[in-house]
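The aim of this short unit is practical: by the end, you should be able to scan a pair of folded records and say something sensible about each. We start with the first protein, listed as its amino acid sequence and then its structure tokens.
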Amino acid sequence: MSWWCFPFERLVGALQKINTNDHIGGVLEATIIKTMTRTGNIRRWLRRPDCPEAVRQLKVLFDKCFIPANAVNEDDTLRPMKGPHRAYVKWDGVNYSPSSTHAGNATIVYRPSPTGRPLGGQIQQIKNINSDSVQLHVRPFEPLSKMLYDPFLRYPHLLATTYSSQLQERVDVISLDDIVAHAARFDYSHNRTVLVNLSRD
């Protein structure tokens, strides 16, 4: 039980170390709320049609200083990078990386061919083809042995598929359009791994 409480204890410790200049009784909380409210009011005022043009010109600077935490970059154009390999690529608002760069961003659900069924796999390399195209080298997971039990079969709405935690020797070369979704991975007993499809659709 104490293990699960550990992150929260760390958080409490971090909060206790914040210098509040001995202001207690809600002063700190009030300052945070006032700052958020003022920022929201300024952002709303800058978007009003009757906002003066001289002030509206400052909106570019304002947006750079106060970027919303949930802002999504709609620009999915590939940025040119030197060399034959990439450490990451951003596509449809999601970062993908080789396993050597970031294991979490390397686990995907993809189609090895346009008519093939989706498989779980791990990105090994991302290669530049030209300034606006890349190839992903993906190793699929070994299918789960028929001798092993898949506890997630009872929950089809989870979009969870169990594989062997071992990767196949085969390497599929795919494009970004062949990616179905990112996948969350969890390894558990008997060398099993479950992938949860994180599709936004």
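Turning to the second protein, read its sequence before its tokens, just as you did above.
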Amino acid sequence: MNNLSNAAAISKTQNHHHCLDCCRPIPPVVLYILALLFLTGLGVSIFILVVVHNALFFIIILFLSVFVAGFLLWNSLNFTRNAAVLFLLRSFPDSDLSLASHGQLVKITGLVSCGSVSLESSYERVAQCVYTSTLLYEFGEPGLKPSDVKNSCFNWRLAYAERFSTDFYITDSKSGIRALVKAGPDCKVNALSIERKLVKTTQNGRVLSSHLRKWLRDRNLPAEARVLRLEEG
């Protein structure tokens, strides 16, 4: 079994401190440059439209602005879901293991089955897993009111992380060959799965559910009522 919990905590903490990437995946400098270019182009296009009575440049500026704005919006909405990486991976064709050579990088799509060791998810207790991830976030940065929870994603702090992977088998859908994938101890794993939100408490809740309290106590975490978000995948 490969313990990825420390890597998950470091990654999430870095994302929280580096310009709060969950809300601003585009660097502010880039936004300032794009805004300056847009205003400059808009001013020049309006000048040409008024003086020369040619609207072509103005239409081009509007078209480019809509295209760039759409790209920035898509990037912001899909940043936390690794949409760009998944899109790139899906663009590669599936490999045929019967034709693959030793050391070749392959992409395999097929049925996954557990190896000698299977995992169980931490909160929902789902068995026969090859990868599990449970993340607990707390809200409560100093100087902020509970009413800010709905309006800000800057203040969710990763309080606890459990991530494990293990060796598993995958059956190639093209050739039918069953291959062992090493994801256990001492293996480097880059997981792209997205955790599903299971629990989200509010400032109005006075008592946490019994199952959540037990889960927190089993991990030596405070079990008093507070604003929490638990995700698992």
